[in-house]
Amino acid sequence: MSSLKRNDLNHSIYVESHGVVIRLTSNSPQALLGALPEINANLPGCTITDKSLNWDHEFAYIWNPGGLDAVYKNGERVAVRRRRDWAFQLLGSQIRLTVAEFAPKHVFVHAGVVSVGGKAIVIPAKSFKGKTTLTAELVKRGAVYYSDEYAVVDQEGNIFPFAKDLSMRGIIDDRTQVEIPVESIGGTIGTLPITAGLIIITEYSVKARWRPKPVTSGQGFLELINHTVSIRQNTELAFKALGNLVKNAEIIKSKRGDAGLTAEAILASL
User: Fold this and answer.
1) Residue 189 phi/psi, 5° resolution?
2) Which pLDDT score, from 0 to 100, does residue 115 have?
3) Which of 150, 179, 168 is nearest to 17 (CA)?
4) Please, what is the angle between helix 131-140 and helix 259-269, to 10°?
5) d(CA 86, CA 80)
6) CB atoms within 10 A of CB 238
7) Mean per-residue pLDDT pooled into runs of 10, the chain (270 residues)
8) Which of the ends of the chain has fewer CB neighbours closer than 10 A, N or C?
9) What angle do helix axes 217-225 and 235-247 make, rounded to 10 degrees?
10) 75 to each of 3, 23, 81, 221, 255, how far by Cα in Å?
11) What 8-state DSSP symbol labels residue 13?
């Protein structure tokens, strides 16, 4: 890791989300302006200001005339000589991850979340396991969209919207993400906190068939721990939130094949 030592970072903005304040500095006002769309896309509902705030973490974006830029976090190098569009994407995702890890009153669980009948369907999964695809298929069939990235949970087990655009793969290739507004697939966005009615532990497998089996609250709790960003940073809050999240939810587990057929089966079972 390389510490940042510069005296030309004279431009700054402040980003607040879920009780975490990020200071972003740069040697160029163009960099800050260019970063705004990525920050807003990664942190729906965040507040951005140029007024000085007491900050918890600091990012620096180094703008180079040749277009190969650098990103630092708390004085340590994240990436250097990155193409500008990639550098902005990296900055946005790193700021989002920092909020998810250090939010003082919310626990961020990697999961897709939709609402049906006023109750949440939570789909915890890591990247490349198909959670966004299944979330999108549920939305296409009438479920209300909450997130394809995080279930944001308070200590009482309430789930709050984190309604970023859907990050869909498979449009360009199997790895490149394309951001799709949920409205473009006919979806609506939830606005109120809800509790979990169904937790689905699943991942895509080419030849798999949807054969869900019930899982105990304890097993569901252990599965959720694996997808919880702040489990080491704020273990007490995470345990309390996850315990309340699973308390009254049905939990099922199965591998799945086609997302559309799986979504139909899930909604039919409800």
Assistant:
1) -105, 130
2) 98
3) 150
4) 60
5) 11
6) 22
7) 76 98 97 97 96 97 95 95 96 98 98 98 91 96 97 98 87 71 96 98 94 96 97 96 97 97 96
8) N
9) 140
10) 5, 12, 17, 36, 42
11) E
pTM above 0.85, yes or no: yes
Q: Which of these, 73, 79, 120, 121, lies nearest to 101 by C-alpha position?
A: 73
Predicted local distance difference test score (pLDDT) of residue 1? 40
Residue 178's pLDDT is 81
**Spatial contact of 111 and 150, defined as CB atoms under 8 Å apart:** yes
What angle do helix axes 29-42 and 84-102 make, rounded to 10 degrees? Answer: 50
123-263-125 Cα angle (round to 5) = 20
pLDDT on residue 3? 61
> Residue 170 has what pLDDT?
61
Tokens of residue 160, six digits: 């709050």
| Amino acid in the structure at residue 160 | F
The secondary structure of the chain in percent helix, strand, coil, rounded to multiples of 5, reads 30, 30, 40
Task: With CA atoms as reference, report the closest residue to 22 among 12, 10, 9.
Answer: 12
DSSP assignment of 93-160 equals HHHHHHHHHH-SS-EEEEEEEEEETTEEEEEE--TTSSHHHHHHHHHHTTPEEEESSEEEE-TT--EE
Q: How many residues comprise the chain? A: 270
What pLDDT is recorded for position 174? 62
Structure tokens, 91: 């900055």
Contact criterion met (CB below 8 Å) for 112 and 199: no
User: Which amino acid belongs to residue 17?
Assistant: S
User: What pLDDT score was predicted for residue 5?
Assistant: 77
The answer to whether the beta carbons of residues 243 and 222 sit under 8 Å apart is: no
